[in-house]
Amino acid sequence: MDEKLKVGIIGATGMVGQRYISLLENHPWFEVTTVAASPHSAGKTYEEAVNGRWRMDTPIPEAVKNLTILDVNDIDKVASQVDFVFSAVNMSKDAIKKIETEYAQTETPVVSNNSAHRWTPDVPMVVPEINPDHTDIIKYQRERLGTKRGFIAVKPNCSIQSYTPALSAWQQFEPYEVVATTYQAISGAGKTFEDWPEMKGNIIPYISGEEEKSEKEPLRIWGSIDPEKKAIVPATTPVITTQCVRVPILYGHTAAAFVKFRQNPTKQELIDALTSYHGIPQEQNLPSAPKQFIQYMTEDDRPQVQLDVNFENGMGISIGRLREDTVYDWKFIGLSHNTARGAAGGAILLAELLKAQDYIAKK
């Protein structure tokens, strides 16, 4: 493209905001020109605001260091400087709904990492390889908001990324019952071991709200648009039940999943379906898209977080240990990077899809 789109990040100083900053460095389509955060950080340079709490493995990009942080509540000022925004604000759910809606109503598209709008009926919640057609709902959302170009689109919860892609690849075999336990990294809570020393050598068998998200969000992704209701109607199968456990890992969510199918696939058919599964991001070679969306690992002890979490720059999904089960039909282990594919990276890929579909353009 001749000129990059101007990007704002609201909630730029938190862990997900930092991940956006890091991943967008040298992006071929997008340039971070505006950063916004709480009134406490407003007026500082970005470097000053994150001093002592920059959590990424790479340094703060030079192009962002000296940007002056705006007050996230100064919506008109932020919106006037950008073509669209990524949202990673840390507020109550109601406050997030309000501020994201207000940004959209300035004719500024909002691509959000937050959960607040995931069940707003006309807001698409998208994994670009799985349900890119859900962006068709945006026309109804714009009618409701009274906008011509402004809208909100969201990515799903990080915990579902390690098993939902596999189930999507297997839709032809009609999975109808799933049990999944997720083992989730502490960065999913926006923490490091410095912030949360009690997690060292520890497991916490509870993550607030996570099990409901893990059971329900895949069904919305597999749902369909009802033109009469102007809403996305969730699918009804497969039935999913989950447990979500916090484990002493910095990055990477692992899932142990058990599946019943109405069809009777062979192991090779299941593996072939995984490795051949792809979507618009691969077909159009979007900048952040993994060339291989899902890899299947044949070793008994894979996937492992230390070895495999960064597959395809953290944007690919690793599946292994696929084997027949004595109670369910098949079981497997899945692994995804929770802050790349599961958070900021997934939102950036969604923004690339929206640009390719002409929903995001220069103002």
Automatic annotation (TrEMBL):
<dbReference type="GO" id="GO:0009086">
    <property type="term" value="P:methionine biosynthetic process"/>
</dbReference>
<dbReference type="InterPro" id="IPR005676">
    <property type="entry name" value="Asp_semi-ald_DH_pep-lack"/>
</dbReference>
<dbReference type="InterPro" id="IPR000534">
    <property type="entry name" value="Semialdehyde_DH_NAD-bd"/>
</dbReference>
<protein>
    <submittedName>
        <fullName>Aspartate-semialdehyde dehydrogenase</fullName>
    </submittedName>
</protein>
<dbReference type="Pfam" id="PF01118">
    <property type="entry name" value="Semialdhyde_dh"/>
</dbReference>
<comment type="similarity">
    <text>Belongs to the aspartate-semialdehyde dehydrogenase family.</text>
</comment>
<dbReference type="Pfam" id="PF02774">
    <property type="entry name" value="Semialdhyde_dhC"/>
</dbReference>
<dbReference type="GO" id="GO:0004073">
    <property type="term" value="F:aspartate-semialdehyde dehydrogenase activity"/>
</dbReference>
<feature type="domain" description="Semialdehyde dehydrogenase NAD-binding">
    <location>
        <begin position="6"/>
        <end position="138"/>
    </location>
</feature>
<dbReference type="GO" id="GO:0046983">
    <property type="term" value="F:protein dimerization activity"/>
</dbReference>
<keyword id="KW-0560">Oxidoreductase</keyword>
<dbReference type="InterPro" id="IPR012280">
    <property type="entry name" value="Semialdhyde_DH_dimer_dom"/>
</dbReference>
<feature type="active site" description="Proton acceptor">
    <location>
        <position position="253"/>
    </location>
</feature>
<dbReference type="InterPro" id="IPR036291">
    <property type="entry name" value="NAD(P)-bd_dom_sf"/>
</dbReference>
<dbReference type="GO" id="GO:0050661">
    <property type="term" value="F:NADP binding"/>
</dbReference>
<dbReference type="InterPro" id="IPR051823">
    <property type="entry name" value="ASADH-related"/>
</dbReference>
<feature type="active site" description="Acyl-thioester intermediate">
    <location>
        <position position="158"/>
    </location>
</feature>
<keyword id="KW-0521">NADP</keyword>
<dbReference type="GO" id="GO:0051287">
    <property type="term" value="F:NAD binding"/>
</dbReference>
<dbReference type="GO" id="GO:0009088">
    <property type="term" value="P:threonine biosynthetic process"/>
</dbReference>
